[in-house]
Amino acid sequence: MVEPYPSVSLKDALVKRRGKPILGPIDLALSGTGFTIVLGPNGAGKTTLLKVLHGVERLSKGVVAWSVPDAQARQMQAYVFQSPIMLRRSVRQNLAYPLQLLGEDKAAIASKVTDWARRIGLEEALDRPAPRLSGGERQKLALGRALIRSPQVLFLDEPCANLDGRSTREIEALLQDAQAAGTRIIMTTHDLGQARRLASDLVFLLHGRLHEQGEASAFFATPRTSEAKAFLEGDIVE
Amino acid sequence: MNEIWAGIQAAFRLIVTLDADLVEITLRSLQVSLSALVIASLIALPFGTWLAIRRFRYRRATIATLNALMGLPPVVVGLIVYLMLSRSGPFGVLGLLFTPTAMIIAQVIIITPLIASITHQAMRELWAEYHDLLISLNTSKRQRIATLIWDGRRTLLTAALAGFGRAIGEVGAIMIVGGNIDHATRVLTTAIALETGKGDFALALGLGFVLIALALLVNFAIHALSRTEREGTW
Ligand SMILES: Nc1ncnc2c1ncn2[C@@H]1O[C@H](COP(=O)(O)OP(=O)(O)OP(=O)(O)O)[C@@H](O)[C@H]1O
Ligand SMILES: [Mg+2]
Q: Is some CB atom of chain A closer than 8 A to the CB atom of B233?
């Protein structure tokens, strides 16, 4: 079982790269057991937002505040990067790695690894080198490696970008299971169908700014801004 | 031409019959260079890794210095170590000049920058690849270094082998600080230089074959390692 999730907020957050703002200034609060989907066109700042919340990307200004002490907050999060990072090891060792860091005993690790390999459909590939997997298999492995620690908060940056329809559904089921078990999920996607299926609430970014935030059903039914409306209709957003 | 042919035949005889001098010199060479390799690796592997992942003020300058040290002519290293260890030098009281220890010191100085530099480059690449994941998993500094060293172990071994190759074939520095003393500090390279000077091509060639064999072995090992790395065989 997963402990209750913490909440996180951004206050007056700004990220600059090479002197130009790429995200913010932004104020945002995420709390509750929700499934947050971050939407926005390419370059809107979705990845930057997730990395800032997770703490792998630093703010130029402002603060990220978790409702629990920082050290504890760090320990309860997991992140699946847009381009999966594979350790130069076997699939099995990639899955075991986050647990080894926690010093769990070998038998417990081995049983969790087999369990998760089965859930992500890679049990046949356990002894293959992870860097040799296909794009989709890598994404599945990255997801399994993130979920194996039962994180309270899970960040996913386009986890289904390279997956076929069937794999996408399997992954969605895994994510819904995790959410039901108490994991708070914050995910980006370019698949609006997927956003509709999964989102409880929504963040819409444009040019690094928070354009809309709110309940998913309301956003999809009646987007407040013309930009969001255009985005949902598949038009080019200026 | 005849003389060379006779030399080659005699050299083979020395090798096949495990000639006492040849074996002794080969073993001493291995002892000196392997000792230097172990010591240099203990310094260079952690240092190169640390240099790759740590940002500090004089990092660029340190890397530039390292690369410059890599180009130090061995003869000059020999000269400096000689001055340090000679009776009137700062470490003269230790009485290390013309001992295998002095030769090890010189070789450590020659190959440490080489191993550290290769390590640094390889580790920097790996660190760039792993950075976000290792930060994300909230790894401690020790866990990060351990992960990088473990996953970069083939490259590190390659770096060490390159260092060994340089050490075993080096002649200038060890000639100066070792003195090429029979049954004490004579190694493959210095013996070859001496025997060639004396015109005893049999022993020189015999030792030369051993040296070539060692160098080839090192290169095959490096090649095999880089192939397992590329093909991702675990
Ligand atoms: N290190 C950097 N230096 C300069 N610009 C950067 C840097 N990182 C990101 N950017 C820019 O910031 C903007 C936002 O990038 P980000 O990756 O957050 O977009 P995104 O919404 O995730 O896009 P996508 O849908 O393509 O993944 C982009 O225009 C990108 O080029
Ligand atoms: Mg992105």
A: yes
- In terms of CA atoms, which chain B residue is nearest residue A57? B132
Q: Hey, are the CB atoms on A56 and B132 less than 8 Å from each other?
A: yes
B231 in a domain, yes or no? no
Domain harbouring B132, CATH code: 1.10.3720.10
Residue A14 lies in a domain: no
Q: Ligand 1 centroid vs B100 CA: distance in angstroms?
A: 58
Per-residue pLDDT 10s for chain B (234 aa) are 677 888 888 888 888 899 999 999 999 999 999 999 999 999 999 899 999 988 888 989 999 999 999 999 999 999 999 999 999 989 989 999 999 999 999 999 999 999 999 999 999 999 999 999 999 999 998 899 899 989 998 889 889 999 999 999 999 999 999 999 999 999 999 999 999 999 888 888 989 999 999 889 888 888 888 887 766 655
Residue B181 burial by CB count (10 A; 0-12/13-18/19+): exposed, middle or buried? exposed
Tell me which chain B residues have a C-beta less than 8 angstroms from the C-beta of A99: none
Query: A187 lies in a domain?
Result: yes
- Which residues does chain B have within 8 Å of residue A133's beta carbon, measured at their own beta carbons? none
Residue A38, sorted as left (phi over 0), alpha (psi -120 to 50) or beta, turns out to be: beta
> Closest ligand 1 atom, CA of A41?
25
Distance CA B201, CA B178 (A): 23
State how far residue A220 is from chain B, nearest Cα, in angstroms. Answer: 32
Structural domain that includes position A184 = 32-209+226-232
pLDDT for A238 equals 66
Position A3 in a domain: no
> B129 lies in a domain?
yes
| Residues present in chain B in total | 234
Q: What is the pLDDT of residues A156-177, one digit of tens each?
A: 999 998 889 988 998 999 999 9
Is the entire prediction scored with pTM above 0.95?
no
